[in-house]
Amino acid sequence: MHRLARLFVAFALLCGSAHSPALAQDKSLIVFAAASMKNALDDVNAAYTAKTGVKISASYAASSALAKQIEQGAPADIFLSADTVWMDYATAKKTINESTRVNLLGNSIVLIAPKDSKIDNVTIGQGFDLAKLAGNGKIATGDVNAVPVGKYAKAALEKLGAWQAAEPKFAMAESVRAALTLVARGEAVLGIVYSTDAKVEPGVKIVGTFPADSHPPIIYPVAATTTAKPEAADYLAFLRSSASKTILEKYGFTFLIRPTS
């Protein structure tokens, strides 16, 4: 009996030693990020996993949808929003750890058309007639009442005096990537998206850039959620690093902070 007990203990210890490295490596984080971040953040996440072994599961959607999902209890360790409004919303709902919040990135909005469109080199300024430019076609952007890119687009068009005439022609998409796809497929003759989105979609071309002073500054804040795992702090530090900056700038984002390492 004693021999059996000793064998059992030895077996248990062996199993424990076999499993403990696997448990140590089985760390993971869930990142909720604005749809426009997908390509760039996938690369950042791959670099982070290669460096630390921590797996990152990223969920991409409109910032409005993500903020509400987190509010409803969806498991997330990090929230990266495409505007400050939805991060402020999360702060007000006490779903993010405000002390970890930082304004990480900047972007710009552009007018796009399908790659083979005859529309080219549009000067966007006061009195710009977007409705005339679209003709009988649709203009795609994110929902102007909720999705950050749509809100930036509407603000710019209102300031330039082009919103009222163009509004009936708008096709409101659930995210900036959905709007991008509508233009790439030719289902919309024009679209308003972030410059970073236009650069990763071969089916579209940039035909004009909105003046930076025509809309509120485009700021991407990031923060850990109130339910974040301890590893979230290290991930946020990596987002602020030079390695992350190099990747994000390659995709056209503006890095708004001084890299921490």
Query: Over the alpha carbons, how many angstroms does the gyration radius reach?
Result: 23 Å
Per DSSP, what share of the residues sits in E-state strands of 2 or more residues?
A: 15-25%
* CATH level 1 name of the largest domain: Alpha Beta
The tally of structural domains comes to 2
Mean pLDDT: 92
InterPro entries: ModA, ModA/WtpA
Keywords: Metal-binding, Molybdenum, Signal
Family: Belongs to the bacterial solute-binding protein ModA family.
Subunit structure: The complex is composed of two ATP-binding proteins (ModC), two transmembrane proteins (ModB) and a solute-binding protein (ModA).
Write up this protein:
The chain has 261 residues and is of the alpha/beta class. It has 2 domains: 25-106 and 219-255, 3-Layer(aba) Sandwich (D-Maltodextrin-Binding Protein, domain 2); 109-214, Periplasmic binding protein-like II (D-Maltodextrin-Binding Protein, domain 2), CATH 3.40.190.10. Helix content is 42%, strand content 21%. The protein contains 11 helices and 11 strands. It has helices at residues 2-25, 38-52, 63-71, 84-92, 130-134, 148-159, 163-166, 176-184, 195-200, 232-239, 242-250; strands spanning 28-34, 55-61, 78-80, 102-106, 109-114, 139-142, 170-173, 190-194, 204-209, 219-224, 254-255. The strands form 2 sheets. The chain has a 6-stranded mixed sheet. A 5-stranded mixed sheet has the order 7-6-8-5-9, sandwiched between helices. α2 packs antiparallel against α11 (242-250) and α3 (63-71) runs parallel beside α4 (84-92). The longest helix is centred in the first third of the chain and has 24 residues, at 2-25. It is elongated. The protein starts with a helix and ends in a 6-residue tail after the last strand.
